[in-house]
TrEMBL record, chain A:
UniProt entry tagged with the keyword Transmembrane: no
Record-stated family: Belongs to the NIBP family.
A family per Pfam: TPR_TRAPPC9-Trs120
Trs120/TRAPPC9 TPR region domain location: 356-503
GO cellular component, one term: trans-Golgi network
Domain Trs120/TRAPPC9 N-terminal: 184-259
Protein name: Trafficking protein particle complex subunit 9
Subcellular location: Golgi apparatus
UniProtKB/TrEMBL annotation, chain B:
Residues spanning the membrane: none
Main localisation: cytoplasm
Keyword vocabulary terms for this entry: ER-Golgi transport, Transport
Location(s), subcellular: Cytoplasm, Perinuclear region
Protein family according to the UniProt entry: Belongs to the TRAPP small subunits family. Sedlin subfamily.
Gene that this polypeptide is encoded by: TRAPPC2L
GO cellular component terms, semicolon-separated: perinuclear region of cytoplasm
PANTHER family in UniProt: TRAFFICKING PROTEIN PARTICLE COMPLEX SUBUNIT 2 (PTHR12403)
Name of protein: Trafficking protein particle complex subunit 2-like protein
Length: 1139, 189
């Protein structure tokens, strides 16, 4: 006996063994169908007793094992059911012969046999036999079970008779010695009459009877017999049989204690047993009929007590098993018995939940040497050990043995390695190594399990699946290995694993589909979330020029506030919510969107990632995959993935897609808790038009203004210069441009800026809307730079010594100093002051083009295009000093400007109608401009400070037209004309302004009906009375006067001598003094007088005034009394008149 | 920065060391007593230079923190041996755990014998397991000596844990621990 039945369990001792075998040619599947039906009759209740007979069916049984039938009767084949196909009557005799020859194999032990014949057509000539049943086909055999039951009953009858026969055989002359096959030769020539021998025979027979009783369902008798046998055999030191008797005792006790059986689910026989007979359902404390109740009377209490006494307790069972096994261990040939006993004991211990002791039994079983085992037997042995370890909860040990079994399947000694079986067994070891093939189990928290052994197992799985010829599985396992064990792989191993992975994927690329094995196991896809490792995912806003903006009014309407508070410092969200948080900005349908990932490569070599793209949901999205190559063990590396949303709505970035080493993976962010993200949901708004801006001026790359600009231009201008900037806007999008708005904003205005910096006319451009895609529109923008033209203090002092008084006011004096242009150039004081003038100033402004159109406009979105205008302003001219001189007319005055050319070129300055003034580089000259005085009263003037800014319109007149002609010094270029305007706005100080102001009291002198002013010579005739009218108009706010005016005539000899003694040359008609009463505001007062010139000549009238309103205590400023001096030329009276 | 670190380290480690001492005292294991054991063992071991062939420290979550075996070329075998021994360790802990979890003996005794080796186990109160594999042929090694080896190992492990730069759960990379383990292993000759 060399082949152990690892499936055995203690309760098998109460079964009778029936072999079911095919005879002749029987299709395998048909045979097993019949076998299953036969095997369903595993328990038969014997009709006239309460006993049950349990049957164990085998379709394969070694006759060699049958020889041990005397030792343990459940090993004895007592029944044979042959299944055969017999097509015709002709074949019948041959079939019958075969049946008989098969019967002979187990002949010695058979109690009864049956032949089931299938497929027979027609009649058999022979007479009806009880042991043969005919069925027309394998399908049509309704009473197979019934037949088997009858058969079992017949076996029972034989069994019962044998039992009774042996049990009562005490008085017989001689008890035969039962022995096991290997013992036979030991007893040759032994003294059969010795007491020792007889006792041995008795003991062995007792044990045998015990077995029979157990099989016949008489547990109590069996226990009694076993006890007796143990005592008998112990006294004669018959260890092998003593072991058997002890084991029998154990088995009977186990059957008593654990009616549910000890085999558990491992043996598939129990379910059929349960359904075999209805009564088996009460699996609890099933009532077991004992020998004493064999006559049909149910067990009384005494039998229960007796049974309890004979029966072993749970502890004792194990003790006795140990003892039995130790006895078996004494015999090398009883290895199988010992092994089976160990297995049975382990099953019992597993039920008792005594894992430690069970493991000791198993440990013992491992060491039992059964001699030369075939590879198949080894596999079987390791598998069963694994199963048993699993049974007692030693999952690691179980996995270990399963793995050994798997390795045994493909041992080098096997000619045809069973890779498939190996793979299947290896898969079964996974739970033992706390390994699941779902990478999700590894993404949470730290690694669990023993990495070294897990890695080994995965390697083996990879190898086995490759040898199986399933590269897809290899790729999946290898991917899994790489993904989950990355932290434990050494650099060398990483290289090896990836190399082999690449080899495999060249044949069978890895994907994201679930692989299903033939046995139904599903291998979930492995996503390489660690190749490369992603640290953060950030959705990027569109470039500034493409960003959509919501119209303000609409934005407020759409504001959905979850909280009643506008702001709360308590931010209540978790990380997961953050991931789903909606991002502030929007993406636009049809525009390329970007997501930035921070990645790094954990591998010690360059990692090539191909087809890296985004995985999104919510919106139709066209991902544009990228390929990247990360250097070995790179640091964090930004990678931008792009794509185009094709529809509008909310888009969620779920993850990314990669292809590494030929394995494509979809890495979802929800499975990657370590990835930082500030939200993955973004609104995609309907498409908007897109403008491209180009300008006539050169572009500037750097942005000086704060904030982001789409583009900016830079230009260099002289102060006062004007430049035209042509802006071309082209619609390069796919939507019509429907609205366009332009605005500008000047930034960093530290400099005083006069006038409008940027001006444009949008009407023409707007008239071309809507702008179709591909069309363009132009817009001309004027850039005017007017900075302060006033010079610094240094220069002011420089020219201050020319003797012209600014403060001295020769009000009513006719004296004018003729300005002589200063030809000589004043050298500048120092270098530092020079640099002061050469300082280049900058002006910056941002032009904003708001535009919208298409579906996005309907939703209330627009886009901004910004253009930064950067102007470097070089100084051109400076008005270093300004003063006024009264002009000959009282209504006018001369503005004296010291103009300094700070450029390196010659320039021409012209003002109003004056002649051009040519200024060489760094030259300073004075120019006088005659300007009309103006009236401030016509303008609202809250205070003097505001004056400067509020009267630019008037000052416009005073603007100097500075014409700068610049001659380029280089040889090749012709001279370039540039011109601009310089404004005196910033130059005029209050004092000068006062002089430029018209006095509030306006005096009009009318001589001879003609208004008179300084430079107007009134003609009159000698002897004629010349009417003189002085009119005072009060434009001040207060009433003025009364005044007294005295008209004093004099003659100027033009040599400094003035002759006032003209009493005889000029006479007044009436008084030469006028009185003017108080003049109320806006009113006027006129005094009339007359003069009579007695001689010809040039006369001047000096109108002196005397303020009689001294009582008011307020002195009016003298400049208010700027009365013109009157120049009258008295001519000879006509001759005809004079005669 | 560096100087500040240097001054902080001893302070911190001292602090945690005393804490651990208290913990150990609660568990009935005094450091002083184990020290005396160690000394005695040291004297004893001169006669018996051959001791363990494999020493492993296993984390609470049953993954190895440290494993070292003497025939380095066949390390995986010991990985399997130690890994399977965890079944027995778990069984023993659960068996005892029900009764008196507090006063459980840390030393688990012989876990299981294999053909060539004997595997001994020891579990700290924080469920960190120590496993020592001894050659079966080494009959001179008695239970008491195994015990003291475990105590020595436990002491050294405690020192490792006291290192403020050691993250519990990381593999042990300590020279001091290494040398203690090496002293317990069979000499290469």
């Amino acid at each position: 006996m060399s082949v152990p039945d690892y499936m055995q369990c203690a309760e098998d001792h109460q079964t009778v063994l029936v072999v079911v075998q095919p005879v002749g040619i029987v299709p395998e599947d048909q045979f097993f169908r019949i076998y299953k039906r036969i095997a369903s009759v595993a328990q038969v209740s014997i009709r006239d007793s309460q006993r049950n007979l349990y049957i164990r069916y085998r379709h394969h049984y070694l006759p060699e094992n049958n020889e041990w039938g005397d030792f343990q009767t459940h090993r004895k084949v007592v029944g044979l059911i042959s299944v055969t196909t017999c097509g015709s009557a002709k074949e019948w005799p041959q079939t019958l012969d075969r049946f008989h020859s098969q019967k002979e194999v187990f002949g010695a032990t058979l109690y009864d046999s049956r032949l089931l014949v299938f497929g027979l057509q027609g009649e058999i000539a022979e007479q009806q036999r009880t042991d043969v049943a005919f069925y027309s086909s394998y399908e049509d055999c309704p009473n197979v079970e019934k037949r088997v039951e009858d058969f079992v009953e017949s076996i029972f009858i034989v069994l019962e008779s044998k039992r009774l026969d042996r049990a009562t055989d005490k008085s017989g002359d001689k008890i035969p010695l039962l022995c096991v096959p290997f013992e036979k030769k030991d007893f040759v020539g032994l003294d059969t009459d010795s007491r020792h021998y007889k006792k041995r025979c008795q003991g062995r027979m007792r044990k045998h009877v015990g077995d029979l009783c157990l099989q016949a369902g008489m547990l109590q008798d069996a226990l009694v017999h076993y006890h007796m046998a143990v005592e008998l055999l112990r006294s004669v030191n018959d260890f092998l049989w003593l072991g058997a008797a002890l084991e029998g005792l154990c088995s009977a006790s186990v059957i008593f204690h654990y009616p549910g059986g000890t085999a558990g689910k491992a043996s598939g026989r129990k379910p059929s047993l349960a359904q075999g007979q209805g009564q088996a359902a009460d699996a609890g404390k099933r009532h077991r009929p004992g020998a004493l109740t064999a006559n049909g009377i149910s067990a009384d209490t005494s039998s229960e007590i007796g049974r309890a006494k004979n029966c072993l307790g749970p502890e004792d069972i194990i003790e006795k098993y140990k003892e039995a096994i130790s006895y078996y261990g004494k015999y090398k040939n009883a290895g199988v018995i010992e092994l089976e006993a160990c297995v049975k004991a382990v099953r019992v211990l597993a039920i008792q939940k005594r894992a430690m002791e069970a493991s000791e039994f198993l440990q013992n079983a491992v060491y039992i040497n059964l001699g030369q085992l075939s590879e198949e037997e080894k596999i079987q042995r390791y598998s069963i050990l694994s199963e048993l370890y699993h049974l007692i909860g030693f999952h690691r040990k179980s996995a270990f043995f399963k793995r050994v079994a798997a390795m045994q399947c493909v041992a080098p000694t096997i000619p045809e390695p069973g890779w498939r079986a190996c793979y299947k067994l290896l898969l079964e070891t996974l739970p033992g190594y706390s390994l699941s093939l779902d990478p999700k189990d590894f993404s949470k928290g730290s690694h669990c399990g023993w990495a070294a052994v897990q890695m080994r197992l995965l390697h083996e799985l990879v190898y086995a699946s490759r040898r199986m010829g399933n590269p897809g599985l290899s790729v999946r396992h290898l991917s899994f290995l790489l993904q989950t064990m990355l932290d434990f792989l050494s650099d060398q191993e990483k290289k090896e694993v990836t190399q082999s992975l690449e080899n495999y994927t060249s044949k069978c690329p890895g994907g994201m589909e679930v692989l299903t094995l033939p046995d139904g196991l599903k291998l979930p896809p492995v996503a390489f979330t660690k190749l490369p490792i992603i640290r953060s995912v950030k959705l990027l806003d569109l470039p500034v020029s493409l960003r959509p903006h919501k119209q303000k009014g609409l934005l407020e309407n759409n504001m959905s506030t979850k909280s009643p508070f506008i702001y709360s410092p308590i931010i209540m969200h978790t990380r997961g919510e953050e991931r789903n948080k909606k991002i502030e900005f929007q993406w636009v349908q049809g525009e390329v969107c970007e997501v930035q990932l921070m990645v790094y490569n954990p591998m010690p070599f360059e990692l090539r990632v191909e087809h890296m793209g985004l995985l999104t949901s919510g919106v139709e999205f066209e991902a544009l995959p990228a390929a990247l190559s990360l250097p070995a063990e790179s640091g964090l590396y930004p990678v931008t993935l792009v794509g185009v949303p094709r529809t509008a709505g909310n888009i969620t970035v779920n993850g990314y897609h990669t292809s590494v080493f030929g394995v494509t993976s979809d890495c979802l962010l929800e499975g990657l808790p370590s990835v930082l993200t500030s939200g993955c949901v973004v609104e995609v708004i309907p498409s908007l038009p897109r403008l491209q801006l180009s300008t006539s001026l050169p572009r500037m790359t750097r942005n000086l203004c704060p904030g982001e600009l789409s583009s900016s231009v830079s230009v260099q201008l002289f102060n006062g210069e004007t430049q035209h900037l042509t802006i071309t806007l082209e619609n390069i999008g796919s939507e019509d441009l429907e609205t366009l708005e332009v605005a500008s904003k000047t930034c960093n205005t530290k400099e005083k800026l006069f006038g409008e910096f940027l001006s444009w006319d949008l009407d023409e451009a707007v008239s071309q809307l809507p702008l179709k895609p591909g069309q363009s529109v132009t817009l001309t923008v004027n850039i005017k730079v007017r900075l302060d033209f006033s010079g610094g203090e240094n220069l002011l002092q420089d020219l201050n010594d020319d003797g012209i008084s600014v403060t001295g006011l020769p009000i009513s004096s006719p004296l004018r100093q003729v300005l002589k242009p200063r030809a000589e150039t004043k050298p500048l004081g120092s270098e530092s002051s020079k640099t002061d003038y050469n300082h280049v100033k900058t002006l910056e402004a941002v032009m904003t083009f708001k535009y919208s159109g298409g579906a996005g406009k309907v939703e209330g979105y627009y886009r901004d295009l910004t253009l930064g205008v950067h102007v470097d302003i070089e100084p051109s001219v400076f008005f270093t000093r300004v003063s006024t001189l009264p002009a000959t007319r009282t209504r006018q005055c001369h503005l004296l400007l010291d103009v300094f050319n700070s450029t390196e070129h010659e320039l021409t300055v012209s003002a109003n109608n004056n002649q051009d003034l040519v200024l060489h580089a760094s030259e300073c000259q004075r120019m006088a401009i005659q300007v009309d005085k103006f009236d401030f009263d016509t303008l609202p003037q809250p205070d003097q400070e505001a004056l400067r800014y509020t009267n630019p319109k008037l000052l416009e007149e005073e603007r100097l037209h500075a014409q700068a002609s610049m001659i380029n010094s280089t040889l090749a270029h012709p001279s370039v004309r540039r011109q601009g305007e310089a404004s005196v706005e910033g130059v005029l100080n209050q004092l000068v302004l006062e002089h430029l102001q018209l006095a509030p009291l306006q005096w009009d002198v009318v001589v001879n009906g003609k208004p008179c002013d300084c430079d107007i010579i009134a003609d009159c005739r000698v002897g004629d009375a010349v009417p003189l009218e002085v009119k005072l108009t009060n434009r001040s706010k207060n009433a003025v006067g009364p005044f007294a005016l005295t008209v004093v005539p004099f003659q100027d000899y033009q040599n400094g001598v003035q002759n006032y003694a003209l009493q005889d040359a000029v006479t007044f008609i009436g008084s030469n003094t006028f009185y003017i009463d108080t003049v109320k505001p806006t009113e006027n007062s006129v005094c009339m007088g007359a003069l009579l010139f007695l001689y010809t000549g040039d006369f001047y009238l000096n109108i002196k005034f005397q303020d009689d309103s001294a009582g008011q205590g307020k002195e009016l400023p003298p400049s208010w009394f700027g009365l013109p001096s009157v120049h009258i030329k008295a001519l000879e009276a006509p001759i005809e008149a004079g005669a | 920065m560096l100087t500040r670190l240097k001054t902080q380290v001893p302070l911190f480690s001292m602090n945690s060391y005393t804490k651990l001492r208290e913990k150990l005292k609660l568990s009935g294991l005094s450091l002083a007593s184990t020290h005396s054991h160690v000394i005695r063992l040291g004297r004893h071991s001169r006669h018996n230079s051959k001791m363990a062939v494999c020493i492993a420290v296993i984390a609470k979550e049953n993954y190895p923190l440290f494993i070292r075996s003497v025939p380095v070329q066949n390390e995986l075998k010991f990985h399997y041996t130690v890994h399977t021994s965890l079944d027995v360790v778990e069984e023993k802990i659960s068996a005892v755990g029900k009764a008196m979890a507090d006063q459980r003996e840390l030393y688990l005794g012989l876990l299981y014998p294999t053909e060539d080796y004997k595997v001994y186990g020891y579990v700290t109160n924080s469920k960190v397991k120590f496993v020592i594999v001894v050659d079966s042929s080494n009959t001179s090694l008695r239970d008491n000596e195994i015990r003291s080896m475990f105590r020595k190992l436990h002491n050294s492990f405690t020192d490792v844990m006291c290192n403020p730069f050691y993250n519990p759960g990381d593999t042990i990379q300590s020279k001091a621990f290494d040398s203690i383990v090496s002293a317990m292993m069979v000499q290469a000759s």
